[in-house]
Amino acid sequence: xxxxxxxxxxxxxxxxxxxxxxxxxxxxxxxxxxxxxxxxxxxxxxxxxxxxxxxxxxxxxxxxxxxxxxxxxxxxxx
Length: 78
What we know:
By secondary structure, the chain is mainly α. Helices cover 77% and strands 0% of the residues.
């Protein structure tokens, strides 16, 4: 498998962390994201920048937000 095939199979290919967080926040809002994922970055003074800092430093949290985004995009195409 070459890199292009691998990237085509990656649902996050070409999606920046900022775009991902921004789209989810616009769709769900901070309160719903906090209910769904229970992370302080959505609860205490939430902002795109504070979330980006948190997700860049916290691999387990980034994995959760990426999974949520993948499911969100799947549901958008149905």
